[in-house]
Specification:
By secondary structure, this protein is mainly alpha-helical. It is built from 19 helices and 6 strands.
């Protein structure tokens, strides 16, 4: 039973995909509205697929070239194999497919949410959240199935068939090859996130500046030539991009825990692989509990809180995962001390591992709560931006920047406490397993996140179709909550990236054969500074790309208003496809340079200056990237909801202000500045952090200092078992000693 337990992991992934298919079929069966609504939804779906085809064409060249290089590099060192190229391709394909799954259901759920909003907010939430849950469950299901299946194959090929040591070189090779899967997933995620972010924000900025500010028409008015491109952007950026993003995060977190788990000698019933297998099982278990929790996200009447319903589902998934983790860890890990030969050979118990999982889930929940506070309507941060909008555009910008910077304080303190607490509980393995615990409920987190863009599209279709005011009001309620959940999802992702990066960092140190990163050395300190700079230049490139593409979009929208008579009188249709084409070409062109920096920087530094300087680079990227990610995500989210607050009316200095007022125009400017912050460069930070660490992990055997670090193995660890009887009960005591 115990030896075959590993096969449970891909089975849980298959269950997830079956549930996803059932939910997807239910969404598809819902009423798609009248012919006009279906036509508009068709334009959005067509534009989204056109972007994906163009993106996949470019990425196919990258995947083929990278796979050839990886296959060649796999022949150069002992602890790798040309099979890493196959692993890389599978990871890349599944990452792209994860994004497609989300986008495909989102472009079906949007118009059906609009139709449901004609009836009630309850029905609209049901359709939009079910659409989001299809994406969340599908992404997590693919990750669990992919990682679980490949681990079974590589474990049997490199360890079982050779009679290799599960704590030694054979397992190291299996996990190095498995790291190719994570590299493929994160590479596609970066390009999808950056490319999708550039697309959506170029369209959004162009639509806002010309349509709302210059022409004075609503955000999703059918007369605005950029409105279809704007709605397409919600799908390619916030849905397809986010799907690939969290797929990569999920995989990287599991990998980091498995790599560190190899260094733990475990006298368990699973052939010694329980510490390696545990994060996979936690991920699969979290997927199942997330599925259960989706059925609790519902409201009974229109006056109920949508945010409270989403929070309820989220907390149920977290609490179920905590409870089940206790029994799972107690079942899988052995009694007595476990030793990870890293950081002074730290010893811990299985309850320490459980404590680390709990800490990870608490950190994730707190990060989401803090992000919600800084970005939600009605809270002090957003209200302060609203108030500062009354004195002009400049003070709105100042207010948003200030809130974004302030919002880094509590999350960083929470992260620091989580890292230190999980380390005390179970060493560096505890830090990694804390990240795995946090990511266990990814299916639920992504379902909550993905429902927002669906609701946003639904509101756009309602506006373009000229539906009654109450329909748009219902979709606006969902959209406003979606802005907050999108921000909390990004906060969750950046927190997991920080924990995962530290675990990957620890794994890299071991494989690179170094004992520590000494910043007292000039070259290492230089690497630290260069690493801290990379998130800034990455953000600069991404934001500048949005600016250039937005300029093209603004000029095109102005041209159409000028040259096509009758648009403003509804007598002529805008040329929507021209705007879609501008965003598509710009995003494909501009995504290359930021992606190249993330992939090439660690390789150049590693091969030119050695493993310790590369370690300094990774540390700089991680710390700087986490801060930049939190700052940009929260500032952008707060600006966005400050603008949306004017749609219902806000009181500033005793006077009510609405859409069209000078204060509202100032808030539109702030939202426009915040758009590339929260949807392009900000969310890309977590991928940048993990991707550079994974690249370093892949090249570590090539730049190793020769194995200065001592790993735990059965040859240098003594395991002594004593059996006694107390009150007639058999008691086993296991003592583990590392021989130095």
């Amino acid at each position: 039973m115990e030896q075959s337990f590993v096969y449970v992991v891909p089975l849980m992934g298959i269950i997830g995909l079956i549930v996803m298919a059932v939910k997807s079929a239910w969404v598809t069966k819902q009423d798609a509205g009248d012919s006009n609504m279906s036509e508009l939804a068709g334009h959005i779906a067509k534009g989204a697929m056109a972007f994906l085809r163009a993106e996949w064409k470019i990425l196919a060249y990258f995947v083929v070239i990278a796979a050839i290089l990886l296959a060649w590099s796999g022949t150069l060192v002992e602890h790798s194999s040309p099979v890493i190229a196959v692993s890389f391709v599978i990871g890349a394909v599944l990452s792209a497919f994860a994004g497609y799954l989300g986008m495909n259901i989102a472009t079906k759920a949007n118009v059906r949410t609009t139709q449901a909003a004609k009836t009630s907010l309850k029905d609209a939430l049901n359709v939009s959240f079910t659409g989001g849950s299809v994406m969340g469950i599908g992404v997590a299901g693919l990750a669990v199935l992919g990682m679980g299946s490949l681990f079974i194959v590589f474990y049997n090929v490199f360890v079982v068939s050779t009679g290799g040591d599960v704590n030694g070189a054979a397992m190291a090779t299996a996990l190095e090859v498995l790291a190719g899967f994570s590299l493929g997933a994160e590479s596609i995620a970066l390009f999808a996130r950056v490319g999708g972010g550039i697309y959506t924000k170029a369209a959004d900025v162009g639509a806002d500046l010309v349509g709302k500010v210059e022409a004075g028409i609503p955000e999703d008015d059918v007369r605005n030539p950029a409105t279809i491109a704007d709605n397409v952007g919600d799908n390619v950026g916030d849905v397809a991009g986010m799907g690939a993003d969290l797929f990569g995060s999920y995989v990287a977190t599991i990998l980091a825990s498995m790599v560190l788990g190899r260094e733990i000698v475990s006298n368990d019933n699973f052939g010694g692989i329980a510490p390696v297998l545990l994060p996979l099982v936690i991920a699969g278990m979290g997927l199942l509990f997330s599925i259960i929790s989706t059925f609790f996200v519902k409201i009974s009447k229109d006056t109920d809180s949508v945010q409270a319903a989403l929070n309820k589902g989220n907390w149920i998934s977290i609490l179920l995962t905590v409870a089940a983790s206790y029994f799972l860890i107690d079942y899988m890990l052995p009694e007595g001390e476990l030793v990870l030969s890293r950081g002074g050979s730290i010893a811990f118990t299985k309850m320490g591992v459980f404590g680390a999982v709990v800490i990870g889930l608490i950190v994730g929940a707190l990060m989401s709560a803090v992000t919600e506070y800084y970005t939600a309507m009605g809270k002090r941060p957003v209200n302060s931006i609203i108030k500062q909008s009354s004195t002009g555009h400049a003070t709105n910008i100042i207010g948003g920047l200030s809130i974004g910077m302030e919002s880094t304080v509590i999350p960083i303190l929470v992260l620091a406490a989580g890292i230190y607490g999980s380390f005390l509980a179970a060493g560096l393995y505890g830090v990694a397993i804390a990240a795995a615990g946090m990511m266990a409920t990814t299916a639920m987190q992504l379902a909550i996140d993905a429902f927002g863009p669906i609701a946003d599209n639904a509101g756009g279709i309602a506006e373009m179709s000229g539906l009654p005011k109450e329909v748009r009001e219902r979709t606006d309620i969902l959209d406003a909550v979606g802005n907050t959940t999108a921000a909390t999802g990004k906060g969750f992702a950046i927190a997991s990236a920080a924990l995962t990066a530290l675990a990957l960092f620890a794994a890299y140190v071991g494989l690179a054969g170094i004992n520590s990163i000494d910043i007292y050395k000039a070259d290492v300190l230089a690497g630290l500074f260069v690493g801290a700079m990379i998130p800034f230049i990455f953000s600069s490139l991404a934001i500048a790309a949005v600016g250039r593409a937005a300029m093209d979009m603004v000029n095109e929208v102005r041209r159409q208003f000028r040259e096509i008579p009758g648009i403003m009188e509804y007598k002529a249709k805008p040329e929507y496809e021209k705007c879609v084409e501008i965003s598509t070409k710009a995003s494909i062109r501009e995504m290359v340079m930021p992606g190249a920096i993330a992939l090439l920087a660690p390789m150049i530094v590693g091969f030119a200056f050695g493993p310790e300087v590369l370690g300094g680079l990774l540390a700089g990227i991680t710390v700087s990237g986490v801060l930049m990610g939190i700052f940009q995500n929260n500032a952008g989210g707060a600006w966005d909801n400050a603008k949306k607050s004017f749609e219902k009316g806000v009181e500033i200095n005793g006077k009510m202000e609405y859409k069209g007022s000078d204060a509202h125009k100032a808030s539109v400017t702030g939202d426009t500045v915040g758009d590339p912050f929260k949807d392009t460069s900000g969310p890309s930070m977590n991928i940048l952090i993990k991707l550079t660490s994974i690249v370093a992990l892949i090249i570590a055997p090539h730049i190793s200092d020769g194995g200065a670090h001592t790993h735990a193995s059965k040859e240098n660890v003594d395991i002594k078992k004593e059996v006694t009887y107390e009150d007639g009960k058999k008691v086993e005591k296991v003592t583990v000693t590392v021989n130095k």
